[in-house]
Amino acid sequence: MQGILSAERQGAVLHSLRSGQGTLSGDYLAAARAVLRELVARPQLIQRLPLERKPGVYARNLLAGDEGVSVWAMVWGAGSATSIHDHHCSCCFGVVSGTITETWYRAIDATRAVPTAEQQREPGYVACMLPSGPNIHRMRNVGPGEAISIHIYGFDHELHASSIETEYVAVGG
C-alpha cells in the first residue's frame, strides 16, 4: 500500500521519525511529537489531500509508512468511533480539525473495561504513548461535522492490519 503524500514528503516524514533506539524510545516519541505538531499546525496541508471519507464511520488513509512506522490520516464522520482498545505498538496522534472525544478505561478482566476519564481533543492537540500500558482508550467524533486526526504508529503497515492489540467491552460508567 502506497501512502498518499508525495514521495519527497513521505521520505522527509519517515526520516524525521528515525531513532537509533527504535519506536519504543523517548527519542522516537519526541520525534513523533515534532512531526505531529508540524502537521497539525498546517491543517490545509492535510485537508487538501485526497482523503477517503466514509459517512458515520472513520476512514484510515495511509500517508507514509515503512518497516518501522506508519503515518495515517483518520477522517472521522459524524458519530464515528473506534472500539475500546489497547495497542501493540507506540501510538501518537494529533488533531487537525474538528473535535475528538477520547475516553480512557481500566481493564477489569481480559475483555471488559470501565471508563475512568474523558477529554475533548481540539485542533492542535498532540499525544504520544508507549505500549507499556495498559493504554486502553476509545476515540469518537461526537460533533455534527467531520474531524481529521493524524496517527503515527510504531508498526509496519505491510505486516499488521492495525495497531490494535486487544479490544474491550465497556461495563459500568
UniProtKB/TrEMBL annotation:
Pfam family, one: CDO_I
Example GO molecular function: dioxygenase activity
CDD domains given in the database record: cupin_CDO
InterPro entries (alphabetical): CDO_1, RmlC-like_jellyroll, RmlC_Cupin_sf
Gene3D superfamilies found in the cross-reference section: Jelly Rolls (2.60.120.10)
Keyword Plastid carried by entry: no
Family affiliation: Belongs to the cysteine dioxygenase family.
Name the record gives this protein: Cysteine dioxygenase
Organism phylogeny: Bacteria, Pseudomonadati, Pseudomonadota, Alphaproteobacteria, Hyphomicrobiales
